[in-house]
Amino acid sequence: MDDPKTVFWLSAHPEPRSLNGQLRRMGIKHLKSTGHHVVESDLYAMGWDPVVRGDGLVEAGQRFDPTGDTKRAYIEGSLPSDVRGEQAKLQDADAVVVQFPLWWYAVPAILKGWFDRVLVSGFAFGKDPDTGQRLRFEKGPFQGKRVLVLVTLGDRPRAIGPRGKSGELCELLFGLLHGTFAYTGMVVLPPMAFPSADFTDNESYADMEHALHDRLDQLFETQPIHYRPQFQGDYTEEWELVPEVRPGETGLSTHVIDDHERPS
Amino acid sequence: MDDPKTVFWLSAHPEPRSLNGQLRRMGIKHLKSTGHHVVESDLYAMGWDPVVRGDGLVEAGQRFDPTGDTKRAYIEGSLPSDVRGEQAKLQDADAVVVQFPLWWYAVPAILKGWFDRVLVSGFAFGKDPDTGQRLRFEKGPFQGKRVLVLVTLGDRPRAIGPRGKSGELCELLFGLLHGTFAYTGMVVLPPMAFPSADFTDNESYADMEHALHDRLDQLFETQPIHYRPQFQGDYTEEWELVPEVRPGETGLSTHVIDDHERPS
C-alpha cells in the first residue's frame, strides 16, 4: 500500500463470539494486512460508561448544563480521561468504522452514549471564535474524516430497502449519518448492512466476509452520500430548504443531492 | 374525571432544575390534578443501568445471545429486578409519556438502554405459541396502550418541519415511533416538540406549559399516527410494501396511511 492510513474501529456488542465479534476481528485483520494502522474501541470490552453526568464537571449541588459544562471542561482539558482518550482516537483517525447490531432500530445504548459523551461542543462542533461562523457540516471540525457504518440486523434485506417496512436504512439512520457524522464534518459512506443476521450459516458468512473485505479495500475511494452543504444557499437561516431546491418535495431524501442536480 | 387512567411517565434528563425537569414536574402534577394515577421512572434519579449484559443471565464464560437469553430469562422470571419493575409499570399503564432532550438527534443513552433492556422478546413482541402468529404491530402485546413523546431540542421549529434540515420529527424518530412503539402494538400519538429549548424565557415557557396541558388533556382522545398494519395485505412476506400500495413511492411517509386512503 502506498498510503497507509489510520482507521479507528468503534464497535459495540456484548459477546465476542457473536457474528459482530467475528466480523470485527476479521475486518481489523484485513485492514492491518493491507497496511493500515488500526486503533480500536470495543465498548463492551472497555466497560465504557455511556451516561452523561455532571459528576466531576460541576460542584455537588450545582446545576448541570450538559452542553455548556462539557464544552467548558473540554476547553479546560478537564473532561474525564476516558472521554479524552476517545477524542484523541477520533482526532487522529483518517477513517472511522462504526460497527453495531441494530437494537430497536437504533444503536445500542453503550454506543449512543459514546456519541453523547465524546462529541462535545468545542470538539465536534462549535463556532469560530473570531468570525462567529458556525463550525458544522462542511465547516465541521472532522472534515475529510471518512465514516463507514457496519450494521447487523435481524430483518431481511427488503425490509430496509426503499419500500421496506423498517425504513430504508439511510433514512432509518438519518440522525446518525446526517445529524451526527455529517454534522461534525465527516464524509459519510453508504452504510453496509448485514441483514438476516440470525440466519447466518457458513456460506452466507463467507459472502459477508468477502463483501466486507471489498468495502474496506474501497474505504478511501467509495463515493460518499452527498448530503447538502449547510452554508451554500440550499437552506434558509431557519435550517429549512429554500423553495427553489426540490420544490414542493418533503422527506429525508431531499437532503441528499440528486445525481441530476450535480454538474456532470 | 369519569374515567381515571394510569399514566406511566418515563423521562431522562440529568438535571432536575432543567427545562425537562420543570416540564416533567408540571406535567405530572397536571395529570394528577385531572384525576389520573401517575407512575414515574426518572431514569437519572433512579441510576438506571442502560447496558444490556449477559451477567446473571448466562454462566460465566458461556456465550451470551442478547435476544435469546433475555427471552428465556423473561419466561423463567429471572430477569434482573430493575428490568422486571419497569416491565410491570409498562404493563399496567394505559398510556406512556416518554420525555427526553434530543441528543445527537436521538434519545439519550440512558433512555435507549431502557428500551434495550426492558422490551425483551416474549414481553414486548413474540410469537403465539399455538398458532405461530407473529405478535407485533397490530398483533403486538401492547395494543391499546397510548404513547406520547415529549422532546426538547435546540433547533428552531422549521428545522424539524417537512423540509427541515434536521429531518421532519416523525421521520427522524421513525425507529422509535414506528420501529419500537408501533412494533410492540402501542397507539402512537404525534410527538410533541419543544424546539429552541435553549432560548426559553418566561413567556415562551408559559406557552409550553399551556400547550403541554392541552396535549395531556387530550391524551386519550388525540388521533394517533396511522401506521399501516403489518398483517392486512399492505406488505409482502419480506416486509416490503406491495406494489399496489403507494405505487412507485419511497420514503418513510409511505408507511403512514394517507387520509385519502382511509374510508371516510
UniProtKB/TrEMBL annotation, chains A, B:
InterPro entries: Flavodoxin_fold, Flavoprotein-like_sf, NAD(P)H_dehydrogenase_qn. Keywords: Oxidoreductase. Residues 6-211 form the Flavodoxin-like fold domain. GO terms for cellular component: cytosol. One of its GO terms (molecular function) is NAD(P)H dehydrogenase (quinone) activity. It comes from the Bacteria. The keyword Signal does not apply. Belongs to the NAD(P)H dehydrogenase (quinone) family. PANTHER family: NAD P H OXIDOREDUCTASE-RELATED, NAD(P)H DEHYDROGENASE [QUINONE] 1 ISOFORM 1. This is NAD(P)H dehydrogenase (Quinone). It comes from Brevibacterium sandarakinum.
